[in-house]
Amino acid sequence: MASGVKPRVKVPKSASAGDVITIKTLISHPMESGQRKDSSGNTIQRSIIWRFTCDFNDQNVIDVVLAPAISTNPYFEFEAQVPESGEFKFTWYDDDGDVYDTSKKISV
Amino acid sequence: MRHMALTAIAAVLAGTAAFAGGADDDTLILNDEIEMVTKTAAPDHLSDAMDEIISGWHFRSDETQQLQTDDFENQGMIFADYGAEAWDTVEGSEDKSCASCHGDAAESMVGVAATYPKWNDGAEEVRTLQMQVNDCRTTRMGAEPWKYDSGDAINMEAFVTSHSRGMPVNVAIDGPAEATWLDGKDIYYTRYGQLELACASCHEQNYGNYIRADHLSQGQINGFPTYRLKNAKLNGVHSRFKGCIRDTRAHTFSPGSPEFVALELYVKSRGNGLSVEGPSVRN
User: Fold this and answer.
1) Where does the record place a coiled coil (chain A) (predicted)?
2) Complex ipTM
3) Which of A18, A55, A97, A103 has the most CB atoms around it within 10 Å of its CB?
């Protein structure tokens, strides 16, 4: 597994029904592209976050496929409309099969 | 005609301070809470050189500046978080972590970074924050010292420094530290390398001008450790010094060397009065 991976998420704690809120997410990850070579000329194996999803009360909000040219520590900022109280669930999928997730509650 | 054109250019240059590569007039507010001092009157010892000291933040683009206004977007804080983990990690033969003695860093480390490098009575030397951390690690924790400006050491420095953000830099340059400070001043004004450049050649005489495609700042170090977009990691001040001296095509001093400790004290004293910003974001 890639080392030092730590997801961070910023969601407002409360909102009014129907409000559009801004969500910010960042995961610390090396995002090794698979194009680079080490000092002895061997290719460094690709290791990136290849997919990111966000769900609200089991309803999908955003689903992103990431490519190798995306830089270290991928950051996403997006908006979502909140109809009711609930929980945002964030999931990152690593090349090596690891899945990192975290969730944030919001009350309306 | 030619004469007139030159006069016109001179008038433009004199008329506005914020031309070309110069400092802008934005205000740095951290997390909508702390308003930082990024421009202020120069300390007394600089009275012959400049009137105003300006944080390097003002010399960067709006996009880069904005990254530093919010802890979430400031990627330097990721590394400070690693430092926070190390703070609570027990290491060495004494079964201690930083927290065993110093408790909660949010209380015990407030204002610490603003006064380093500073004189240590017991050791009779000027110490940087990293040297002090390593002294704790070896004498109190019985752990291995960290290599100067290595990842672990910088992360810890960033974590400790983050608790002083918004407080004015205030390093002592008199008393026992004065000799070291004078050594640092000597280095600052010494021309190095094939290009024969001193720190002052760029950062005192030419700040606000362009160096190739980039802006020359005053070379203030109130924002270190600094997250640089160019290498996507935190950079220590000694490593930055090394990069600068290398660019003059000279053999450089090593990070952690007495020369760089003296230079760090001197350069930091040139920023006495600016807010501590570390970890800051630069390009």
Assistant:
1) none
2) 0.73
3) A55
